[in-house]
Amino acid sequence: SCDTSQLCNCSSMGLDFVPLGLTAKITVLNLAHNRIKHIRSQDLQQAVNLRALLLQSNKISSIDEDSFQSLAKLELLDLSNNSLAHVSPVWFGYLFSLQHLHLQGNSYRDLGESPPFSSLRNLSSLHLGNPKFSVIRQGNFEGIEFLHKLWIDGSNLSQYEQGSLKSIKKINHMIINLRNSNIFSEIVRDLLHSVIWLEVTEITLPVEKKSLVQNSTRPFRIQKLTFKESFFTDETISRAIVLLKEITSLKELEAVDCVLDGQGKWNMKEIARSGPSFVETVTIINAVIQNFHLFFDLNGMQSQINNLKRLTIASSNVFMVACYIAKHFSSLLYLDFHDNLLANKRLDETICEGSWPSLQTLNLSQNSLKFLEQTAKSISRLPKLNNLDISQNNFGEIPDVCEWPKTLKYLNLSNTQIPKVTTCIPRTLEVLDVSANNLKEFGLELPLLKELYLTKNQLKTLPGATPIPNLVALSVRRNKLNSFSKEEFESFKRMELLDASENNFICSCEFLSFIHHEAGIAQVLVGWPDKYVCDSPLAVRGAQVGAVHLSLMECHRSLVVSLICVLVFLVILLLVAVGYKYHVVWYVRMTWAWLQAKRKPKRAPPKDVCYDAFVSYSENDSDWVENTMVRELEQACPPFRLCLHKRDFVPGKWIVDNIIDSIEKSRKTLFVLSEHFVQSEWCKYELDFSHFRLFDENNDAAILVLLEPIQSKTIPKRFCKLRKIMNTKTYLEWPAGEEQQQVFWENLKGALKS
């Protein structure tokens, strides 16, 4: 049950005893909410480094005297809500480091005859008492000099020995649940010089006749007195006001969840005779006054309110303050009337001309104000007002022009149902809150504004920076913001805090790039990074904006596509260049032409044959072909019809089509082979077509004439059938001597006729 920091949580495990095997490593041991009845001597003997021991809500009724003897480092001991019938000083004799002790909720009736806490020199907070606790004796608190907090459940306390609490020199905050009103004044007298803040709960305030400061010398220490869940009458309040004036150190009175059975019929003459009050702050929260509408206007209290500086009356059905009373709050700086029943008609009476002359802060939130223009006009009568909260009033509309105090710097108009912001809002503001109003835009010019709160509206973009150049803090939390750009962010030159959390961010590449690379943005964004979450793209929905990194393709799609297009273009350009260099296009077209030729009849009909032979030769051999061979063959008897590309190709027709047509219209194809022929590209193309068309038909339509000796290996290997023919069949070779030339011509003519 222990974690890495040696905090061992064994609560609510149904344990009947302290578990065995506790070691010196343990620093916190939680045994709360079990069924432990007895703490034995050896149970905690080894836990010498224990700092906190939680034993509340068990059934502990007995503790061995030396059970805590080894816990010299213990700082917190909670024994509350058990069944201890007595408190023994021996238990705490060795707890030299103890700072917090909780003993409330047991069944002891008193703290014993001996001082139980005398050895606890470092004690800071003490909680004790229970419904059976009935007696506090002198000496119970001996040894304690200072307490930060003392909490006593004395709901059934019936006996208090005078001077019992005087031994404590200083108590910052004391809370006592006290129903017996007869001992209230005795406790107060003992605490005048020690306690700073006294809080009394569930008391029915008595009509005290004796002075609260009798036989006490000034200066007193008590500064604040709080009553919670207490009961008052007109008579007890009148007497309390008089008696509390004697405590000259008392500066603050507070009443929370109290009940007044009366109508304000206080003894004004006695109150006035007792002199002015030293109290500067009065707070009344959730006061219940029977028949509050019949309550008097407290006429006669004027002399008691002149020095008051802070007044809070909240959740107490206040609907008006009489004008002549309001004028006597001459020193009041702070007035809080939130959650009451103030309406515009009564506000005119409450804030009349000359009332509240020094008021700087006014809170009228959660009232029944409905007309903003009238509200502003009433408030304009407060010449020194700086801060105004009129939030959570249902104004609904906002005029274009309003009259406000010239000194107004802070205005809270949140949750007032205004549909837009207009020039009704004063230009003097430094802080403006218009949250929760369904605003769709904000373009108001407020040159002095430093803080702007636009939470829970419908804004889709950040407000423009130009109309609010001095803005330091901006909240656009829970709007419809999708993103904001570097330019928008940097346009706020003085921005120190930006709360854009809980929006549905579109995590685009531009937005993410800005977020990841903007220096110091993490220090400016409130709630970063936990409350900044992507809503789209779908793949990253729910992820924190700061943790999302999109791929290069997602972020630079157009650039990647452009690069791919450029690359494809370069590849195509390269292929075109290669194709041009190696005539690839020509070969492709040639192959296409051959495929088309494949579909034609294997031989053209006799009527389509126009030539005896198509002559394929190199341009370097044209002199021999044109001047020797053509003259010999075409002037023979009968003459041969030869097809020469120079003479017989159709002008303008693609050369491939000319070659194919000429071969198909010729009975034979005559190749004049030489070294020039082998090196000629066009001769190779003509050999290709002969290879495709003629050799594939396995006929003897080709006639080979060797103009000069060549090696068969010089013929390209791809013309395998031509090489085979040269290796296996006879070909005509042009002789050097004239006698052999005549035989050559006869053989050539015979081959052409065959």
From TrEMBL:
The keyword NAD applies. Keywords: Disulfide bond, Glycoprotein, Immunity, Inflammatory response, Innate immunity, Leucine-rich repeat, Membrane, NAD, Receptor, Repeat, Signal, Transmembrane, Transmembrane helix. It is found in: Membrane. The chain crosses the membrane at residues 559-580. Its main location: membrane. Disulfide bonds join C2-C8, C323-C352, C402-C424. GO terms for biological process: inflammatory response; innate immune response; toll-like receptor signaling pathway. Pfam families: LRR_8 (PF13855), TIR (PF01582). It comes from the Eukaryota. The keyword Signal applies. It is a single-pass type I membrane protein. One of its GO terms (cellular component) is receptor complex. Signal peptide: none annotated. One of its GO terms (molecular function) is transmembrane signaling receptor activity. Residues 609-752 form the TIR domain. Belongs to the Toll-like receptor family. PANTHER family: TOLL-LIKE RECEPTOR, TOLL-LIKE RECEPTOR 2. Binds MYD88 (via TIR domain). This is TLR21 protein. It comes from Dicrurus megarhynchus.
